[in-house]
């Protein structure tokens, strides 16, 4: 066995160990609950733009993008645009002509100005409107038409009904071996009432939508190795790999 193969095998053993360590998982959940009131995910930027994510998920996303090489990444939810910039920068590193499409019900003027002024904007297109509006979904499908490898990230309204409808609309766009990433499934692991100013909560969130969707779909599998590897993630159970055309 080569040194590279030996290292890869060791990493896989590490991941399997984490997968079965209930104490580590509980410690992770306790840590997430402790830092949630401090809005930890707001602390980071990507190439100058706020990116409201755990850094661990960014590590997973870059691995996915590098391995699967999509030529279109669709993301619902734009906020400050950091995720769009992240996706665009990864596609630039791939050296292809990949594009990023962002959808948001409210692209605020100050964010639009900053996103459009960014060096990565040349790869980005934005659509303003609800991601579950039929006419908006039609526009997204038109952009996706002809793309060979499509990845989708859902990160807008986090209620069960909204995410389930997004899954129904956008999961069909994901191509074989690419990923559908559903953010903020972590809500289901947090105490009820953790989001008093939001319409989502325990039992009404992206995780429950994923569960309902997966009960009716045979195209996707949950990539549990990513969950085990990351431990700290906004999307446990939300990294879905497309297995069939």
* CATH class call: Alpha Beta
Q: What is the overall number of helices?
A: 9
Order of helical and strand elements: HHEEHEHEHEHEHEHEHE
DSSP, total strands? 9
Distance between the termini: 35 Å
Radius of gyration: 18 Å
Strand order of the largest sheet: 5-4-3-6-7-9-8
Supply the CATH architecture.
3-Layer(aba) Sandwich
CATH topology: Rossmann fold
Query: What structural class do helix, strand and pairing data support?
Result: alpha/beta
Q: Please indicate the percent range of residues in DSSP E strands (runs of 2 or more).
A: 5-15%
Q: Please identify which CATH superfamily we are dealing with.
A: Vaccinia Virus protein VP39
Number of domains: 1
Helix content: 40-55%
Question: How can the largest sheet be summarized?
Answer: 7 strands, mixed
Shape: globular
Global mean pLDDT? 97
Low-confidence stretches: none
Oligomeric category:
single chain
């Amino acid at each position: 066995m080569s040194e590279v193969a030996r290292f890869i095998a060791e990493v896989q053993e590490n991941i399997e160990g984490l997968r079965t360590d209930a104490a580590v998982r509980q410690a992770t959940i306790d840590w997430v609950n402790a830092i949630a009131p401090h809005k930890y995910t707001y602390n980071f930027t990507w190439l100058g733009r706020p990116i409201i994510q755990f850094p661990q998920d960014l590590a997973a996303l870059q691995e996915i993008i590098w391995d699967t090489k999509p030529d279109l990444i669709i993301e619902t939810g734009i906020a400050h645009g950091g995720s769009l910039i992240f996706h665009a920068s990864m596609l630039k590193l791939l050296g292809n002509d990949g594009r990023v499409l962002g959808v948001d019900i409210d692209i605020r003027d100050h964010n639009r100005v900053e996103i459009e002024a960014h060096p990565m904007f040349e790869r980005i297109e934005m659509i303003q409107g609800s991601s579950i509006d039929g006419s908006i979904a039609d526009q997204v499908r038109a952009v996706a038409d002809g793309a060979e490898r499509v990845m989708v990230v859902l990160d807008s309204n986090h209620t069960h009904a909204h995410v389930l409808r997004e899954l129904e609309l956008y999961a069909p766009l994901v191509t074989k071996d690419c990923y559908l990433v559903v953010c903020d499934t972590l809500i289901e692991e947090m105490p009820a009432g953790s989001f008093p100013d939001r319409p989502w909560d325990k039992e009404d969130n992206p995780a429950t939508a994923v569960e309902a969707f997966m009960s009716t779909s045979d195209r996707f599998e949950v990539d549990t190795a990513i969950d085990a590897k990351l431990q700290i993630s906004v999307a446990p159970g939300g990294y879905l790999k497309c297995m069939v055309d």
